[in-house]
């Protein structure tokens, strides 16, 4: 299995080492050391499968010889403690063959080291351990001085900086993961520490080649023994506490596969025996729960802890959705709409419908909107209405820059969710029943955090509004909470894109949002906005040049540079800053030690704050311009004091000393993750191999005027590979996505499936019992009411009338012809005693399982139908939601999904209600439709069956007659359907008799094609004669 190892060290003369000897050993060759006057012969060494010198352009030819290269290095360095070379060592994935492994190493060395001016001596070793397992790895010796046509020059000190090593480590992981994905290997490596990955185990030391050889020979091998000791201790802990492995696996993902488990255990155990023991122990743990197969046919598992988390999230969401009491009056909403009209805001019908949805009286409302559809503007109108009613409106987002975007776009005072939770833990800033909490970019929030936030709001009786786009960046932590909740409760959808000012760019954003990344990239390619370059370094250079040209040509426009990794962001920041220095736009440099290492700042520099600080009122991602740098203090207490003018209309200034706050960096470029929620005039994006369609969607939708995309062909060889990389799907899942799990929690478990013990669920729900002092309801869905508050139901549907009326809302006013005509409000209710049922929603009787499952299917079906009605492709998560809903419905009653689909097809009233008023109130209608269609399918209602067949035959006959020429491909498809209907008629004597006796009522005239089918003695003759007579003619069908 692939493992992560990447280390770097310096070969120093002061330690008694020789660069020539080191090179000879790593290449298994014999080299003569001119300084020492002797040869170093390691030709007996085995395992070296590739060895070469890679030199940058302009280097003298002689340096391509290994002996000449390292002897010249030795001769150049005069000091007795000189640093001679840097050695980088990294492990190669075992899943690759030798050719693939060599190419992987070669590409990385060329891009990261040689293209930056280093001469690299690359040697790939393919050793084997005592058990015959391959241990492929690479040794790279690097020069430490710049090189030109005449040889070596001065040393490059920045190559020794810690951030350089950090960047190399991160980019190696990205490089390996991308290449493995391209080659079809389902493996990933992670450069982060175990603590950062949420792994509660002891980190291991790497066993070097020398240690392995000593161990093989039976000699003392301290490093190897330390590694095995750590692995053994970790394995022992996993045997004692298998939950550690499960917590580690579910730190960032709600579900996992057996391969994920085996990969993790393999890294944390010593030897095959301990591996097997730990695997058996973990797989037999009562913590583990089998969910079923994913879309690729792989069995997926979860833990009772993550299942309990998502259960509590679901219960809190349902409780909020059942709550009432945050109604906005007609007068307040009218006032807010008038104010928006006065400001020149003309909302579209999607925004008006979403506004009606979020200002309804339900305690939970969700809004799904494409990037740039004006979600924040809509929330600004809602804020005015809420505040006029006396509600306190608070905003929150996962990142500081997204919180600032929400506040700037809607006027809602906003902060990060982490800072809110921090305050809540200390009893400060807690929510009340008069609060409305608006959470933007909700798709980036994991299940655990979402559960905590919703539970706090539920206890306080507050209203929660979740706004986001599940197709943008996925949650960093485990789960896809926003997508799951929007599927369960429904959401108002805003699809009219307003950010881009050119029609074709709006179409491109819509394509990015709906998974058609290739079509969007083709548009930008045709417009000359996609630029391929030889290397990533060339791409960065060209990007900065285009940014600088645009900045100078249009200084009043806002711009942003985006990349995926911090390392690329740092390089882009340095490039952009050098352009300002060359133009004389920056003051004198002041070197400062920041939290990310040494940086130089000057007056005029763009600066980004990287940590929330309430005393300064800055957030992680806040941007500003340095206006002053002064020295503060004396001697050892000396520090720099910076004065920064923050971005925004107010232009507020903050001053701070670096010793008090050092979480700063240059602010010309940012990561794609920081940019979600940002809007600028122009964006400049660096595409690299670790991006997927979610990151591409965010990066290519930040702009109003235009976007430039740059990539290096060493990362992606051509436009085709660019599309393939940026179109990769990496959506996360939740435990609620699996129909088997749904059935288990309902107590309907197939005989061949694992049943979750009742004890397990009781223990998983212990936090709920501690909170309420009562036993929680059995199972995740027991006692809950599904989907009462989807967009388009009573709260939205009774505020908004028909689509035609909504479309006129931009041209009329409320009480007289105006821009918001068509918006209808519920009458103000008279005060009345609160019913017992409202005070204790948990005591209500839950709808039956069939009704709940039918409602879930109806909501999922409506989502897909609305997309088709707008001529948009159905999103992957919507298709998956419909499939899951169908499977869950069939678990309750076999073939019920087929029957409900048929009912929605044939009953226009049911179809209309499902689209406009989905929810629990419609459950009885859906179940009635299932029962009716089941009767038709089983032959209990032959009259209705006959009517439908006659209608369908007429439709097919008309379509057949409209075809041009017998070679039309569609003709065969239509005839196949007609044959199917004919076979159904002839195979059901009761149905055939009904159709014959009711021919006149059904519109079947004598001599028509359907009449001939009924009169022929057998199906073969009926079909042959009917089709041979030519269905393109009119045979008297009157229907």
UniProtKB/TrEMBL annotation:
InterPro entries linked to this entry: MobA_MobL, P-loop_NTPase, TraA_Ti
Name of the protein in its database record: Plasmid mobilization system relaxase
NCBIfam families: MobQ, PRK13889.1, TraA_Ti
SUPFAM superfamilies given in the database record: P-loop containing nucleoside triphosphate hydrolases
Residues covered by the MobA/MobL protein domain: 17-215
Record region (Disordered): 210-235, 788-853
Swiss-Prot/TrEMBL keywords: Conjugation
Family from the record: Belongs to the MobA/MobL family.
Ranges of compositional bias, category Basic and acidic residues: 212-235, 790-815
Any single Pfam family the record assigns to this protein: AAA_30
């Amino acid at each position: 299995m692939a493992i992560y190892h990447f280390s770097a060290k310096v070969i120093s003369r002061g330690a008694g080492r020789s660069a020539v000897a080191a090179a000879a050993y790593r290449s298994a060759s014999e080299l003569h050391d001119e300084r020492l006057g002797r040869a170093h012969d390691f030709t007996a060494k085995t395992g070296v499968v590739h060895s070469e010198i890679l030199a940058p352009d302009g280097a003298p030819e002689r340096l391509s010889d290994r002996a000449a290269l390292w002897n010249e290095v030795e001769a150049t360095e005069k000091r007795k403690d000189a640093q001679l070379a840097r050695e980088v060592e990294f492990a190669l994935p075992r899943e690759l063959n030798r050719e693939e492994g060599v190419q992987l190493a070669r590409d990385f060395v060329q891009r990261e080291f040689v293209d930056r001016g280093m001469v690299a001596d690359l040697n790939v070793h393919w050793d084997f351990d005592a058990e015959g397992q391959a241990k492929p790895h690479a040794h790279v010796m690097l020069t430490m001085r710049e090189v030109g046509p005449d040889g070596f020059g001065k040393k490059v000190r920045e190559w020794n900086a810690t951030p350089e090593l950090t960047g190399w480590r991160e980019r190696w992981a990205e490089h390996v993961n991308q290449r493995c994905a391209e080659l079809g290997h389902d493996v990933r490596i992670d450069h982060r520490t175990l603590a950062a990955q949420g792994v509660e185990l002891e980190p291991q030391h790497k066993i070097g080649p020398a240690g392995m050889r000593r161990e093989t020979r039976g000699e003392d091998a301290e490093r190897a023994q330390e590694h095995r000791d750590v692995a053994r201790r970790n394995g022992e802990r996993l045997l004692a506490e298998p939950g550690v492995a499960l917590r580690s696996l579910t730190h960032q993902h709600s579900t996992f596969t057996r391969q994920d488990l085996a990969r993790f255990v393999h890294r944390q155990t010593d030897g095959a025996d301990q591996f097997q023991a730990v695997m058996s122990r973990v797989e037999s743990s009562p913590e583990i729960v089998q969910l079923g197969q994913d879309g690729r046919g792989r069995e997926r598992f979860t833990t009772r802890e993550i299942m309990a988390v998502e259960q509590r999230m679901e219960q809190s969401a349902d409780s909020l959705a059942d709550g009432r009491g945050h109604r906005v009056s007609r007068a307040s909403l009218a006032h807010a709409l008038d104010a928006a009209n006065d400001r020149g805001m003309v909302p579209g019908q999607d925004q008006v419908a979403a506004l009606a949805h979020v200002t309804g009286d339900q305690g939970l409302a969700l809004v799904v909107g494409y990037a740039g559809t004006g979600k924040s503007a809509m929330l600004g109108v809602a804020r005015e209405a809420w505040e006029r009613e006396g509600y306190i409106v608070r905003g929150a987002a996962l990142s500081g820059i997204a919180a600032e975007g929400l506040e700037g776009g809607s006027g809602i005072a906003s902060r990060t969710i982490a800072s809110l939770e921090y305050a809540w833990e200390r009893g400060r800033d807690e929510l009340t029943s008069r609060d409305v909490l608006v959470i933007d970019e909700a798709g980036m929030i994991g299940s655990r955090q979402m559960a905590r936030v919703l539970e706090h709001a539920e206890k306080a009786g507050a209203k929660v509004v979740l706004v986001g786009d599940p197709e943008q960046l996925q949650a960093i932590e485990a789960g896809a909470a926003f997508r799951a909740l929007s599927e369960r409760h429904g959401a108002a959808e805003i699809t009219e894109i307003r950010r881009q000012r050119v029609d074709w760019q709006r179409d491109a954003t819509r394509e990015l949002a709906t998974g058609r990344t290739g079509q969007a990239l083709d548009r930008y390619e045709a417009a000359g906005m996609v630029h391929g370059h030889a290397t990533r370094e060339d791409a960065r250079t060209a990007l900065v040049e285009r940014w600088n040209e645009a900045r100078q040509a249009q200084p009043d426009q806002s711009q942003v540079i985006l990349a995926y990794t911090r390392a690329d962001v740092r390089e882009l920041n340095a490039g952009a800053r050098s352009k300002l220095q060359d133009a004389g736009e920056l003051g004198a440099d002041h070197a400062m030690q920041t939290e990310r290492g040494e940086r130089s700042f000057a007056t005029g520099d763009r600066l980004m704050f990287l940590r929330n600080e309430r005393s300064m009122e800055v957030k992680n991602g806040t941007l500003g311009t340095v206006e002053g740098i002064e020295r503060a203090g004396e001697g050892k207490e000396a520090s720099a004091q910076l004065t920064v003018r923050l971005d925004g209309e107010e232009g507020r200034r903050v001053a701070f000393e670096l010793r008090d706050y050092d979480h700063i960096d240059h602010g010309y470029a940012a990561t794609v993750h920081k940019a979600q929620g940002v809007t600028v005039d122009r964006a400049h994006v660096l595409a690299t191999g670790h991006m997927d369609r979610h990151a591409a969607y965010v990066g290519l939708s930040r702009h109003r005027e235009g976007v430039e995309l740059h990539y290096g062909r060493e990362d992606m060889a051509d436009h085709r590979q660019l599309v393939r990389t940026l179109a990769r799907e990496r959506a996360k899942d939740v435990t609620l996505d699996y129909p088997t799990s749904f059935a288990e929690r309902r107590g309907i478990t197939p005989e061949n499936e694992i049943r979750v013990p009742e004890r397990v669920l009781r223990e998983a729900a212990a936090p709920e019992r501690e909170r309420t002092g009562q036993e929680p309801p059995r199972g995740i869905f027991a006692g809950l009411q599904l989907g009462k508050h989807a967009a388009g139901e009573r709260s939205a549907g009774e505020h908004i009338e028909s689509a035609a009326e909504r479309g006129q809302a931009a041209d009329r006013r409320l009480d007289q012809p105006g821009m918001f005509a068509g918006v209808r409000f519920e009458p103000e209710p008279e005060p009345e005693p609160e019913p017992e049922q409202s005070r204790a929603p948990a005591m209500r009787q839950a709808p039956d399982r069939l009704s709940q499952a039918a409602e879930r299917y109806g909501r999922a079906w409506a989502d897909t139908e609305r997309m088709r009605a707008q001529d948009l492709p159905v999103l992957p998560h919507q298709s998956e939601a419909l499939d899951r809903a169908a499977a869950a419905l069939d678990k309750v009653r076999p073939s019920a999904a087929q029957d409900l689909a048929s009912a929605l097809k044939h009953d226009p009233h049911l179809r209309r209600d499902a689209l406009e008023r989905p929810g629990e109130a419609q459950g009885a209608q859906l179940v009635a439709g299932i029962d009716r269609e089941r009767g038709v399918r089983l032959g209990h209602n032959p009259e209705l069956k006959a009517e439908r067949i006659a209608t369908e035959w007429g439709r097919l006959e008309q379509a057949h007659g409209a075809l041009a020429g017998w070679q039309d491909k569609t003709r065969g498809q239509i005839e196949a359907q007609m044959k199917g209907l004919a076979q159904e008629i002839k195979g059901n004597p009761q149905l055939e008799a009904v159709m014959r006796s009711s021919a006149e009522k059904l519109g079947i005239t004598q001599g028509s094609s359907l009449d001939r089918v009924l009169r022929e003695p057998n199906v073969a003759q009926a079909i042959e004669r009917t089709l041979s007579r030519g269905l393109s003619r009119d045979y008297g069908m009157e229907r």
